[in-house]
Each structure stands twice: as structure tokens, then as C-alpha cells.
Design a protein that fits this description.
about 625 residues; globular; alpha/beta; 5-stranded parallel beta sheet; FkbH_domain; HAD-IIIC family phosphatase; HAD-like_sf; Acyl_CoA_acyltransferase; 3 domains; disordered C terminus; Rossmann fold; Aminopeptidase
Length: about 625
């Protein structure tokens, strides 16, 4: 209780100070399992004023087929814990279908989440003697819901978050025939499969599996008294589980996912201390507890296969570690799986700083897993934006401890995600390569950098939208363009969405930059330009602007206008337009160049193939 008192006190202090709760406080909030405490936290956070760049603002509407109840407070707390600052717009009771049919919600929400219960799909009265008729009714209700949702999305440019519905015990137990139970059970599982399938029909729909989540949690789904008395179909525990799943979706779509997993070795990736027991004495594979450590390595490898960058952070001698990783027959992770290996006796916080500098990523991109309370505490104190995961206690819980929070969630995997571990390993090689040159320009010339630029294709929309959501440092205006907005711009003759890919002697970096441009009345306006931090320092941003200037010139534009709006996290981009040859105009944050007379700003060490686009000349 003292911990909860301290937690709530810290949240109240943040509200009073008009500041975002500190990262460590948010992580503690995310770990609270008592829904009553999370409800209190949600009420406290309702008074949080705009907290600046530390939290990503999000406008979310909640529509429900039932009473919303405490879901509002639980959802707010879950969203703040993931790094967003929500404005919640609550639909009126009994207006679920009407709101979807109308296709408009006051407040222009970014996300609409729907709280569903079984009464929406079941008739008020049904016959236990006709399970096939009941199954047909459920299927018909889903078809009606599907039609409403897809029509709503045609009118409202928002993300929709839905969930599967647990099979109600009353429905199951009302049937005394096992055969009938099977028919109705099939129909209900088909309903949930159809709900999950909605995500394949429109990329703006995400469906979380609440039914599966509740099957894995020790919480009751239903409080019968609250259900009958207040039309509240779910317990606080079930609503908290749903709120956290919805918050994970929002965090992923807002670009708040983490990219790097830094791992200890002794009693984390293997059992035992290598320096004490030697390679042959490690617990790895076989029976408990060795199977737990091997399962963790398998889980980590699966994360790497999906684009998570691995960093080794271990206090050990490097030679024995390299030998164990390379030669141990039960080892799943090998030396080449790690983009950075910091195996030494330096403080782990310092090693993580070095890894962040090597990868050119912020601390907020890192998750650190270690069995030592001292090491975790030191990293949390020195690098508060790094998420810290405990690997102590029973090793049987290692995989769940790592995966449960959903640190690395993304809306969908892109080609760049799948290539990311290799890309960042190449980045580390570039860092080593650069040490052999007398000047940075000599190094840049030796890289033989090539930039490929063209209007966004349908295959690239997902990656470009991901860049918009996840790029904070070189993000000139902070304006976010999701998949729907990027797709719309790519098909509009008066607008242009462009992608920029980079390759050099170490390999293909993939799409690392994007620009969204309005091209009306012979005046081109760069609404936003973003560049991945992993290619900072190579002049790629100037190559991008040079390409845009050339395109504007070819199209006969008489002016090209760039914008810079400080966000608190994009100071690295301050002054960029002037460095690119633009002149400040009378309006704050606006810069102009005449394409017909603008000198090139393409760095001499960068080349790109010429491309053309009939829509713009």
C-alpha cells in the first residue's frame, strides 16, 4: 500500500507541477495489477494539463454497446503510462449504432475505441432448442456491425480499435446438450475470428483479443450484480486488461514503440555466472532451469527476427563470453545477433549510453533486462527513459516478464523493420570504419552514399507512415501523416508524398526519410520532412531538399516554402532551412527559396539516380 500511496502522490505532484509524470513513475503505473489503484490514478490524471513534448497528445473517442463505467479512468491511466496524453471523448449511453451510422464525432478523434458486449450480438430471447438459429442471428449481427464500421471509416479518418468478446457462461450453460453447446461455441468463436478479420479489410482497424487475454489472467470477466444493475458487463480487472491492450495499440500507432533490447548474460540469458562456473557449468537447455534460459533466448531471437535490435551489456571478460556464445551447443543467440556488444567491467549505464551513441538512438528506444537489482536501479537512476525489466526471481517467468508489456509493438511489420537488426549492425561497422580517416569528409566520400527518391508507392505507405509516427528528432514540424493521409496525398495531383532510401558500401538502409508537400498555384509547401536518426551526420537531409527543389523547378513552381516548428524534441533540425539555402520569410518558422535560381545543396559525396513523376512535371 505504501508503494501505491507513493505512486499516487507522485502523480498528484506531476499534475500540480503541470508536468508529465517521470518515465519511472509511468512504468510503475503500468505494472500495477490492482484496478482500484489504477482507477484512482486515472481520476488524478484527468486533471493533468498539457504536459508538453514528454507525452504524445491523442484524442480518443469511446463508443460502447453498454455502460462505460470505470473504463474511462482505467484507459486514461493506461494511456499515460505508455507515454500519451489522452483527451477522452465519451459517447452517450445507447447511441453506439447511431454514432457509427452518422459517421461524425465531435472533437475529431484520432482513435475510436469500441467497448462491445455479448448483448449486442444475442437476441433478447432465444430458444435453446434452435442452436442453429441462434448461430445465424449472431452471424447476422456481426454483418451489420461490419457494415457500420466500414461505412464509418469512409467518413471519419480515424483509427478504430475493437476487441473480441468472451463467450458468456450463461449462454454456454443454458444448453444442456453437448452437441448444441458445440454448435453455439463454434458460432461464438467464428464471431471472434470475424472480428479479428476486420483488420485485414482496413489498415485503420486493430482488434485486440480480449477473450484470449482474459483466458490467461486470474481475473473474472463478469460481476453478475453490476451487469444486471448497471449494464456493466465486465469487471474492473477485465476492463483494466482491455485498457492496457488498447493503450498498447495507441502507443504503437503513435510511434512510441521501443527498438532496442539490451540484455545481461549471467542469470539472464543463461543460468550461472560464467566467470565462476565456466562455459560447461552454465544452465542452458535441458531440464529446469536451463530450459527457461533457452526459452528466453528463443523469445529474444523471435524479437530480433521482427526487427528488434539486440545489445549485449554484461560485466564479464570478453574472451570467455565470445567463446560461450560461439561454441556452446545449447546457445540460441550467437555473436552476430547483437548489433553492439558491451562486454567489459564498465558501469552498465555508461555502456548503454555508448550503445545509444553508436546506434544514434535515444534512451527512450531502449529496454534493459538484468537480474541484478543494483544494475537495474543504477540504469533507472542514470537513464530514466530506458525501460527496465527484472530478470531475477524464478526463471520460469523470464519470457513473460519480457514480453508482457508489449514494448516493441508495431501496427504491422515493414521490410525496414525486418532488416533493422542488420542495418544497425552495419551502423556499428561504419563507426569502426570511420576511425581510419583524417577527416569526416574523407570518410563520407569513402562510404559512397546513394539516395533513391521517388513519390511514395502503395507498397511504401506503411513504412512512410511509420517514419512519420516514430521520428521525433529530425521532424521539421511535428505534423504526423498516418497511412490514410499519406495514401490520400499520394493520389492527389496537387500534393506529393515522397520517400527517400539510402544505400552505401555497407549495404541498403532502406527508406529513411519522407516528405509531404502541397503543390498548388505554382507554390510548393513542405508540410513536413522527417529523417531517421540512424543516418544523421551524412547530409541526407540536404540531398532530400535538393531533390524537392529540382522537382519544384521541373513543375514550374515559382516558390518553395519550408516550415520549422519547434516541438521540444527536434532542436537538431533548428536552422536547417537556412543551411539548405532558404531565406526566412515574414512569417515565423517559414523559409522560402526560388526553385529556378536556387543553387544545389546536394553534398558532393552523395549521388542519386534521376527520377520523374508525370503528375508533377
Amino acid at each position: 500500500m505504501n508503494d501505491f500511496t507513493e505512486l499516487l502522490g507522485g502523480l498528484r505532484m506531476a499534475v500540480a507541477d503541470r508536468s508529465a509524470p517521470a518515465p519511472g513513475l509511468r512504468q510503475r503505473l503500468a505494472e500495477v495489477e490492482d484496478p482500484a489503484v489504477v482507477r484512482q490514478a486515472g481520476r488524478v490524471l484527468a486533471e493533468l494539463p498539457p504536459a508538453g513534448p514528454a507525452l504524445r497528445p491523442i484524442r480518443m473517442a469511446v463508443l460502447a454497446t453498454c455502460t462505460i463505467g470505470p473504463f474511462e479512468h482505467l484507459l486514461r491511466a493506461a494511456l499515460v503510462a505508455t507515454g500519451t496524453q489522452p483527451t477522452l471523448l465519451l459517447g452517450d449511453y445507447g447511441t453506439f449504432e447511431l454514432t457509427l451510422a452518422d459517421g461524425e464525432i465531435d472533437g475529431s478523434p484520432d482513435v475510436v475505441t469500441c467497448l462491445l458486449d455479448e448483448r449486442y450480438f444475442l437476441p433478447r430471447d432465444w430458444s435453446a432448442a434452435d442452436p442453429a438459429g441462434l448461430a445465424a442471428h449472431v452471424a447476422a449481427r456481426f454483418a451489420e456491425l461490419r457494415g457500420l464500421l466500414l461505412a464509418f471509416l469512409r467518413r471519419m479518418p480515424a483509427t478504430l480499435v475493437l476487441h473480441t468478446v468472451p463467450v458468456p457462461a450463461e449462454l454456454r450453460d443454458s444448453l444442456i446438450s453437448w452437441r448444441a453447446r458445440a454448435v453455439v461455441g463454434q458460432a461464438w468463436h467464428r464471431l471472434n475470428a470475424d472480428l479479428l478479420g476486420l483488420a485485414e479489410e482496413d489498415s485503420r482497424i486493430t482488434v485486440v483479443d480480449l477473450a484470449g487475454e482474459l483466458a490467461d489472467l486470474a481475473v473474472a470477466a463478469r460481476d453478475e450484480r453490476l451487469y444486471r444493475y448497471a449494464d456493466l458487463p465486465y469487471t474492473d480487472g477485465a476492463l483494466l486488461a482491455l485498457a492496457r491492450q488498447v493503450a498498447r495499440v495507441v502507443a504503437a500507432r503513435s510511434g512510441l514503440s521501443r527498438k532496442v533490447l539490451a540484455l545481461d548474460l549471467d542469470n539472464t540469458l543463461w543460468g550461472g555466472v560464467l566467470g565462476e562456473v565456466g562455459e560447461t557449468g552454465l544452465h542452458l537447455g535441458g531440464l529446469y532451469p536451463g530450459n527457461c534460459y533457452q526459452d528466453l533466448q528463443r523469445a529474444v531471437r523471435r524479437l530480433r527476427e521482427q526487427g528488434v535490435i539486440l545489445v549485449l551489456a554484461s560485466k564479464n571478460d570478453a574472451g570467455p563470453v565470445d567463446k560461450a556464445l560461439a561454441d556452446h551447443p545449447e546457445m540460441v543467440l550467437r555473436p552476430q545477433d547483437f548489433a553492439v556488444r558491451a562486454v567489459n567491467w564498465t558501469a552498465k549505464a555508461d555502456n548503454l549510453r555508448h550503445a545509444a551513441e553508436t546506434l544514434n538512438l535515444a534512451g527512450s528506444a531502449f529496454v534493459f533486462m538484468d537480474d541484478s537489482p543494483f544494475e537495474r536501479g543504477h540504469v533507472a537512476a542514470e537513464l530514466p527513459e530506458v525501460a527496465v525489466v527484472s530478470a531475477d526471481g524464478d526463471p520460469a517467468g523470464l519470457v513473460r516478464s519480457l514480453l508482457r508489456p508489449g514494448w516493441f509493438d508495431v501496427p504491422e511489420l515493414t521490410d525496414t523493420d525486418l532488416k533493422r537488426p542488420a542495418l544497425y549492425r552495419s551502423r556499428a561497422l561504419r563507426t569502426d570504419f570511420s576511425s581510419g580517416f583524417a577527416s569526416s569528409e574523407d570518410y563520407l566520400r569513402a562510404l559512397r552514399t546513394r539516395v533513391t527518391a521517388h513519390p511514395v508507392t502503395a507498397f511504401e505507405v506503411g513504412r512512410v507512415a511509420q517514419l512519420s509516427a516514430r521520428t521525433n528528432q529530425f521532424n521539421l514540424t511535428g505534423r504526423r501523416f498516418d497511412e490514410a493521409a499519406t495514401t490520400a496525398m499520394s493520389t492527389d495531383p496537387d500534393q506529393l508524398a515522397a520517400s527517400f532510401a539510402v544505400a552505401d558500401r555497407f549495404g541498403d538502409e532502406g527508406i529513411v526519410g519522407a516528405a509531404w508537400i502541397e503543390c498548388r498555384d505554382q507554390v510548393w509547401r513542405v508540410l513536413n520532412l522527417v529523417l531517421s536518426c540512424r543516418v544523421f551526420g551524412r547530409g541526407i537531409e540536404f540531398a532530400i531538399v535538393d531533390w524537392i527543389v529540382r522537382r519544384a523547378r521541373e513543375a514550374g513552381a515559382i516558390a518553395l516554402v519550408g516550415h520549422y516548428a519547434p516541438t521540444g524534441r527536434n532542436t537538431v533540425a533548428n536552422g536547417f532551412w537556412e543551411k539548405a539555402g532558404f531565406t526566412p520569410s515574414g512569417e515565423d518558422g517559414t523559409y522560402t527559396v526560388v526553385p529556378g535560381t536556387a543553387p544545389t545543396c546536394l553534398p558532393t559525396w552523395i549521388t542519386y539516380p534521376e527520377t520523374s513523376d508525370d503528375r508533377h512535371g
